[in-house]
């Protein structure tokens, strides 16, 4: 059942650590069935309740899953083997269009903003017991949220979108609860949900966002939370349209107890209007990261939500990291106030690169998607073969397996640094690698 690996330990924590370590090292592979609890208890000479407690720990950590009489098995993508390992390394001479990074040339300079923030801190240091949020950043963030129609709520700061999402989920859900997530969707999020002991249920997407029927089915089946990407969806580039938002709000009205989380990480690099869903359910959070527009290393996101949700997150954050550096917050506030990012110009640059590649692929009979953001998603009949053939042709693309659960195979191309001269050669390489009979759609 487990090949040559023998689970060890006398206590629940030891047994769980033995299994988790074996998963991380590859001695236990995704999908492998674990011994029945009573059988393992006899083998280890411990009480069956001890093994049951160990398996519970492993489930809550996202390492294993249990399917009733079918027993427990290592998750297909356990938390200890994240999707970041599903990647293609770009050897020397191969063009990397797989990394998902923004164009460094479109990021604003940070030196003066941080120098000004540091000088201010020298004059008036931020000490223990002071407010966790820089007042000017909160004011600017709230004004922008108001302009985009996001419901009123307190503004807080965390270390990026994923940090916010994890804290909000923990504020409302318990291990074993189900979260509806986009499929294809952000690989890090698809890893995070099981890593904190929650279950995922896939929701299909098209160019206008999550499919309403899929959302309805997920909520009817008992999903406690729904996570939606507003714009620049990773990997498909989907953006929630006005019509789709209207329908989704109608669906959500039937489930007022559902936790809604909206991720607007595309803010600052997308010129499509925002159509928020927030305010329909009692519990909600809306997050905006500075990563794509100002630089990933800022590790800073602002968020708002209903009072209960924000208070719970604020309280838990106070007991952990305490707060996000006010120097970083002041620097971002200064950049916002100066209009350091010309959203129209940046969005136009990324749109031009996306549109050029999609058009070149269409001319060669290959369907692709990329309504907004940094990436183009290309459904393919044979994902592994396409990735390998493109690598051989000198192009490293991201395998779709990093971003999907039950969705059809695909590849993701990051266009953020794609030169005009590269568009046609890349399109020709993709057409040769995937053939012309690509699937039109996501699922």
Question: Outline of this structure?
Answer:
This protein is of the alpha/beta class.
Q: Could you list some keywords that capture this structure?
A:
eight-stranded mixed sheet, 15 helices, 40% helix
Q: How are the elements arranged and paired?
A:
Layout: H1 12-25, H2 37-44, H3 48-60, E1 64-66, E2 72-74, E3 95-96, H4 111-123, H5 135-147, E4 156-158, H6 161-172, E5 178-183, H7 187-195, E6 199-206, E7 209-210, H8 212-220, E8 225-229, H9 242-253, E9 259-263, E10 283-289, H10 291-294, E11 301-305, H11 307-319, H12 326-338, H13 343-363, E12 375-379, H14 383-392, E13 395-396, E14 398-399, E15 410-414, H15 420-434
Parallel strand pairs: 3-13, 5-6, 5-8, 8-9, 9-10
Antiparallel strand pairs: 1-2, 4-11, 6-7, 10-11, 12-15, 14-15
Helix pairs in contact: 1-3, 2-3, 4-12, 5-12, 6-11, 13-15, 14-15
Structure description:
Strand 1 (64-66) and strand 2 (72-74) form a beta hairpin. The protein has helices at 12-25, 37-44, 48-60, 111-123, 135-147, 161-172, 187-195, 212-220, 242-253, 291-294, 307-319, 326-338, 343-363, 383-392, 420-434; strands at 64-66, 72-74, 95-96, 156-158, 178-183, 199-206, 209-210, 225-229, 259-263, 283-289, 301-305, 375-379, 395-396, 398-399, 410-414. Helix 1 packs across helix 3 (48-60) and helix 2 crosses helix 3 (48-60). It has 15 helices and 15 strands. It is of the alpha/beta class. The longest helix is centred in the last third of the chain and has 21 residues, at 343-363. The model has no long low-confidence stretch (mean pLDDT 92). Strands 4-11-10-9-8-5-6-7 form an 8-stranded mixed beta sheet, sandwiched between helices. A 3-stranded antiparallel beta sheet has the order 12-15-14, covered by helices on one side. A two-stranded antiparallel ribbon has the order 1-2.
């Amino acid at each position: 059942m487990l090949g040559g690996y023998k689970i060890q330990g006398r206590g629940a924590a030891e047994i769980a650590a033995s299994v988790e370590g074996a998963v991380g090292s590859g001695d236990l592979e995704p999908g492998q069935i674990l011994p029945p609890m009573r059988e393992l208890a006899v083998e280890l000479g411990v009480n069956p309740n001890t093994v049951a407690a160990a398996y519970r720990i492993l489930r809550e950590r996202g390492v294993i899953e249990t399917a009733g009489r079918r027993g427990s098995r290592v998750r297909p993508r356990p938390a200890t083997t994240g999707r970041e390992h599903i990647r293609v390394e770009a050897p020397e001479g191969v063009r990397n269009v797989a990394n998902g990074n923004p164009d460094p040339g479109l990021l604003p300079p940070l030196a003066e903003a941080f120098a000004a923030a540091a000088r201010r801190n020298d004059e008036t240091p931020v000490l223990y017991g002071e407010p966790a949020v820089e007042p000017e950043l909160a004011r600017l963030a709230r004004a922008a949220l108001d302009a985009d129609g996001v419901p009123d709520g307190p503004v807080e700061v965390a270390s990026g979108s994923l940090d916010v999402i994890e804290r909000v989920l923990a504020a409302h859900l318990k291990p074993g609860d189900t979260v509806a997530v986009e499929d294809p969707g952000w690989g890090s999020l698809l890893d995070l949900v099981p890593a904190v002991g929650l279950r995922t249920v896939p929701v299909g997407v098209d160019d206008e966002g999550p499919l309403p029927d899929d959302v309805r089915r997920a909520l009817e089946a008992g999903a406690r939370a729904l996570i939606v990407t507003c714009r620049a969806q990773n990997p498909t580039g989907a953006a929630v349209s006005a019509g789709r938002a209207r329908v989704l709000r109608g669906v959500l009205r039937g489930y007022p107890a559902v936790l809604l989380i909206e991720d607007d990480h595309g803010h600052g690099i997308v010129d499509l209007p925002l159509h928020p869903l927030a305010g329909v359910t009692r519990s909600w959070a809306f997050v905006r990261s500075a990563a794509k527009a100002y630089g990933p290393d800022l590790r800073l996101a602002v968020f708002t939500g209903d009072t209960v949700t924000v208070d719970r997150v604020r309280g838990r954050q106070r007991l952990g990291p305490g707060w996000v550096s006010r120097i970083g917050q002041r620097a971002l506030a200064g950049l916002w106030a100066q209009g350091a990012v010309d959203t129209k110009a940046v969005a136009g640059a990324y749109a031009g690169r996306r549109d050029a590649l999609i058009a070149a692929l269409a001319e060669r009979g290959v369907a692709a998607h990329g309504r907004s953001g940094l990436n183009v998603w290309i459904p393919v009949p044979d994902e592994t073969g396409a990735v390998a053939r493109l690598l051989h042709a000198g192009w490293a693309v991201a395998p779709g397996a990093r971003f999907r659960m039950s969705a059809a195979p695909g590849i993701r191309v990051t266009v953020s640094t794609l030169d005009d001269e590269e568009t046609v050669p890349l399109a020709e390489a993709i057409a040769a690698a995937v053939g012309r009979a690509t699937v039109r759609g996501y699922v």
